Fold this sequence. Notes:
- Chains A, B, C, D: Keywords: Pyridoxal phosphate.
- Chains A, B, C, D: Its cofactor is pyridoxal 5'-phosphate.
- Chains A, B, C, D: This is Low specificity L-threonine aldolase.
- Chains A, B, C, D: Pfam families: Beta_elim_lyase.
- The structure is a homotetramer.
- By secondary structure, chain A is of the alpha/beta class.
- Chain A has two domains: 13-253, Aspartate Aminotransferase, domain 2, CATH 3.40.640; 255-346, Aspartate Aminotransferase, domain 1 (Alpha-Beta Complex), CATH 3.90.1150.
- Chain A has helices at 13-22, 34-46, 60-71, 85-88, 93-98, 114-123, 151-163, 175-182, 186-189, 224-230, 239-249, 253-274, 294-302, 333-346; strands at 53-57, 76-80, 102-105, 133-140, 168-171, 197-201, 211-215, 278-279, 287-293, 308-310, 320-326.
- A seven-stranded mixed sheet of chain A has the order 1-7-6-5-4-2-3, sandwiched between helices.
- In chain A, helix 6 runs parallel beside helix 7 (151-163), helix 12 (253-274) packs parallel to helix 14 and helix 13 crosses helix 14 (333-346).
- Chain A is globular and about 55 Å long.
- Chain A starts with 12 loop residues before the first helix and ends with a helix.
- At the A-D interface, helix 1, helix 3, helix 5 and helix 10 of A face helix 1, helix 3, helix 5 and helix 10 of D.
Amino acid sequence: MFFASDNSGPAAPQVMDALAQANDGYAMGYGADALSRDVVARLRALFEAPDAAVYLVPTGTAGNVLALSCLCPPYATIFCSPVAHIHEDECNGPEFYTGGAKLTLVGDSDRMTPDNLRRAIAAEETRGVHGPKRGPVSITQVTERGNVYTLAELRALSDVAREFGLPVHLDGARFANACAKLGCSPADMTWKAGVDVAVFGGTKNGCLGVEAVLFFDARQAEGFEHRRKRGAHLFSKHRYLAAQMDAYLRDDLWLDLAQRANARCDALVQGLRGAGIEIENDTHANMVFFRAPRALHRAAMAQGAVYHIWGAEDGPQDEIVTGRLVCDWSQSAEAVTQFVETLRAAR
Amino acid sequence: MFFASDNSGPAAPQVMDALAQANDGYAMGYGADALSRDVVARLRALFEAPDAAVYLVPTGTAGNVLALSCLCPPYATIFCSPVAHIHEDECNGPEFYTGGAKLTLVGDSDRMTPDNLRRAIAAEETRGVHGPKRGPVSITQVTERGNVYTLAELRALSDVAREFGLPVHLDGARFANACAKLGCSPADMTWKAGVDVAVFGGTKNGCLGVEAVLFFDARQAEGFEHRRKRGAHLFSKHRYLAAQMDAYLRDDLWLDLAQRANARCDALVQGLRGAGIEIENDTHANMVFFRAPRALHRAAMAQGAVYHIWGAEDGPQDEIVTGRLVCDWSQSAEAVTQFVETLRAAR
Amino acid sequence: MFFASDNSGPAAPQVMDALAQANDGYAMGYGADALSRDVVARLRALFEAPDAAVYLVPTGTAGNVLALSCLCPPYATIFCSPVAHIHEDECNGPEFYTGGAKLTLVGDSDRMTPDNLRRAIAAEETRGVHGPKRGPVSITQVTERGNVYTLAELRALSDVAREFGLPVHLDGARFANACAKLGCSPADMTWKAGVDVAVFGGTKNGCLGVEAVLFFDARQAEGFEHRRKRGAHLFSKHRYLAAQMDAYLRDDLWLDLAQRANARCDALVQGLRGAGIEIENDTHANMVFFRAPRALHRAAMAQGAVYHIWGAEDGPQDEIVTGRLVCDWSQSAEAVTQFVETLRAAR
Amino acid sequence: MFFASDNSGPAAPQVMDALAQANDGYAMGYGADALSRDVVARLRALFEAPDAAVYLVPTGTAGNVLALSCLCPPYATIFCSPVAHIHEDECNGPEFYTGGAKLTLVGDSDRMTPDNLRRAIAAEETRGVHGPKRGPVSITQVTERGNVYTLAELRALSDVAREFGLPVHLDGARFANACAKLGCSPADMTWKAGVDVAVFGGTKNGCLGVEAVLFFDARQAEGFEHRRKRGAHLFSKHRYLAAQMDAYLRDDLWLDLAQRANARCDALVQGLRGAGIEIENDTHANMVFFRAPRALHRAAMAQGAVYHIWGAEDGPQDEIVTGRLVCDWSQSAEAVTQFVETLRAAR
Lengths: 347, 347, 347, 347
């Protein structure tokens, strides 16, 4: 019953095998090897974007902050949700990589709406040079509260960005889970929906540590390679990044793994609902946020369930507290069943 | 009827005279002249802080961002009001000078309260290294909406900072106006109230462009001089900064000018209230924010009144819009009377 | 006998008068006043550059670092002399404002040559993304060792920059002295010689603290105004910057003051040569570097001469040490004569 | 005959096995797993430094720039060789991570000497705040030209740093090769020789991508974890970094692999010398720099040898050009023999 995070499970065997296979003989460093070049071509094909500029980086945060640093001058501001990973969980990484840009928080939930996005953008640059310039809009898909924007919602947000001439960044740490949920293609969820730059995450979905950054207009990628290098994210033994991504793309492994994770999450949601437990996120891919008294969380954890709660560990027993359950590809049906039963029993 | 800003009026004649007197013969550059040294000593005396580290800079923003850069590592966050000058009107200056720190906005008004400050501080560092470290608390006195914190309110905020071991910065662009309002000493409003670093503004109160930065614990000023230099704020002809501050301190000119500005503002407030006009700020020093239909603002401006309104110039006539009136030392009683009469007539 | 620096003397009376005249009534802040707009127009006229983007800043370092930050991405390198002010005397200001660019030192003297500049540029970007990209070429005129590039020399350097597609920055802290020396127009020494961005210094030549930054192709100035603001260099009471520059431009005061300074320096050079003293700089505008035993420097200083020597104050008496003498507009013929006589007498 | 770099060969089988073994079940992220904690303990033991602060990062550049950012304020300068990796091959990474520090190049070769280091340090801070403060001394061991400092040489350099109160950083991308060469312990080559912070490289010596950063005085590591996170170098699936390092430490694999690499390089050096070919580096660990006419390099490459030459590929046939040969653990004796024979035959 380990639901702490999708970075907690093992890498997929196909990814491990690919690493082992890549570990043969000599290869030029820094991405000049054949496998690295091939992976770029395959990512372009997957995204139906033959002219995209494509790069691999080892962490999702690296993908986000490097992408944003290409889109946002240091005297501008990035528009995002107040619970965006780039705001809450990258320890000022965007501020660092952009050279001091600001983040303007849009609305008060995990999903921005066209209205509150428009309002937030309109409010900036009314003060001339006294405030920051308007910079990119950053969308997190799946959101940090487990929700999935529909394609129409994505388009509506990017349309607002377009009104103001602003580029759109997609934080896709859980890109595959969202794609699997929506049943759409990577192109549908990115450039066809108005996204300029996407981070296509592998780490949380069966890889050890690899993400692809795709600029659909390669001109926006100017400086990316130098920025990656000075950020210390250019791997010398680049083939090991490429090998992971290669396996991830082969036979749509990325999609298969995400579907498995989502299926477990579906089962969790059904189970929790069946047990009468309130669920916070109205849509979901591989994460569910549920509300329960602290006593119930404690009982579940005492039975071996591992997950995070939102709030202090030592509050009153009857206080309602949110718990987060995350499924990755490796999650078993048994663990899901056991968890739901545990909660039922403990109520 | 010019109420646009306290940076719009002329410099005080005593300040101009001091510039002319300082413009005699040779003086070593970069603050090594006698007048510059003397001014430091006099600032220490005024603040009853014989061990303070004291520096002159040409702009209030320079004072704020340099002070904050000494208090805040790049991976931390600064706590301030959402309408703080450092957030709204310094175009990412704090982010730039700190090397990428974040600003955490406290509450939803110009005055922070101990409760919402404590809540904001408590909420940071709950995510470990994923979010920023807690950094300094920055208080603006007079606030950007014209209010003045009482000494008790300042102490209550700095007490909260102290609970968490955080330093306190005071943005004192209108320090003198606040001091005049409170009838307290500069020491009362700074180190005696728990402030670690204060910017003592001269620019808005009769100088051409000079501010003093005072670190009451000189150890916190480590690196300030190098930071000022690399920020390009170390004046070579430093005597012209010093001469302004010298005149400003002599015979309590700073206080006299502020009292004059505040007295005009008092008259404005009384006049507006007498005319039945709603005033937003419940306390005031030299700024008043009043609410009136756009038609009334237009009528006043058509009669020659100059001031800023909060909102678009071209909205509906009957929409209630906030106007800001700022008095500096040079404001005349006649202008105040004329303005009130203009509003009365136009209603 | 005060030759320590051209930042040591008083401001010109015309500049002081202009300040006093500008100190009248109300003016919009931040450069929105009539005088500020007028000064921009006059600078464009002086430089025969009707489309130039023109800005005022309070210090020469601010002018340099802001200009360079528009020309140089953080992952590039600036080419300059090893004794350039931007390298030796701005405490990492260029590194700070560019967000971490490097300075590549060209040759081993104060004047770059086309050959060593070409060699330095050619050597960069041979390492791909491992090293920085090639960035702007920065030329100091007058150099920090008192020499003046001829127009042909400037053109030869900018031609090399052009070969590689790199922009050219001119640090003109002593622009007027160089112009007076060469007998050329400001346009001759800048855009006609291939300079893209020039800092036109006023501070060292009779102003209190003002410099103009001119981008001859306004597109290169993108972001300058936001960068100036976040650097805390946008003066609220901008009219006092403008008033200085206005007086400086009126009746070619800038040129007149520089000619006076240069004439004193000429007299110094003649006097020193007549006294058999070795002079280091082969050309000069308003600075002379001369070599003499430490004993002679000490004797002169004991007689009241004030200037800097290059090296420790307490070395052996007979060690040959370089002294720097700088003349500003206020230097008197008597002081020059007296200094030469003092040296003669002390030999 | 693949001698292009020690990042070109495969990872050691023990490292691959460890990855596979670590890929089992659930583990908390971000270094909170048991293996990560264990590796820290083992690194402390290896370095005989029970109180050291120890961190894992994925690249050598990350190790260097993060370490330096803890030691060097943005207004200081780092002392290093002009061919140091941090200067030539990290694309302004140190400037970026420190927030704008400078690098002062010491001497004109790959090895600093106490004399030229002392001279370089002494020359800084003579200009007060106009130039940068003195910052850390950074030593590269093995140097970028293949030489190995003796322990006495390291101590002599760190003694100079100590004279000025400056910390010492060791770039140990090839730490193991140097240790193997000197036959000393890791403690001997670091804190016992006056090193404050060392990067212990794994990537070039049989790992996929992992380096350890060790602060022997943990107080100097203040902020490291936040800096690593905001730099986007904190791996969520940290166990895969730990697993590599774990295998690397087990049974002194790090030393065994380095000895193998060095042995091949010894054979190369002997072979080349026997063939009368001039070798540039007077000591060596796993790299040899040799001088030969371009024609000879071309002939070798035509026979299948892969390595880098210093200089253009298309110059005159008889020009003497330096070639660099690097051995890693996987280098075969046959390849070495074949290469030497190829060169002999081609002369």
